[in-house]
Amino acid sequence: MTEQPKKNKVNKKDGQLLIRINSAERDQFIRLCDELDTSAARELRKFIREFVKKNQITDLTSKE
């Protein structure tokens, strides 16, 4: 059997973000993510991408 070449991911997840939040809020967030069949990490990445996209557009228009 031949070994398949490894694929290099374009958007490799190589960074971490550590935050401190109230444990009750954390538990509620995790529970909701489970109920919605998603992960906390996925939802936070989605939020960060949308936040950056939204605010980059604002930054570009405000500098003109």
Structure description:
With 64 residues, the chain is an all-alpha fold. The protein has a domain at 40-64. Helices cover 56% and strands 0% of the residues. The termini are far apart.
Show the helix and strand layout.
Elements: H1 23-35, H2 40-62
- Tell me the distance between the termini: 59 Å
Assembly classification: single chain
Gross geometry: flat
Number of strands: 0
H-E string: HH
Average pLDDT rating: 87
- Strand portion, in percent? under 5%
- Unreliable stretches covering 5 or more consecutive residues: none
Could you provide a short overview of the structure?
This protein is an all-alpha fold.
Question: Which key terms come to mind for this protein?
Answer:
64 residues, mainly alpha
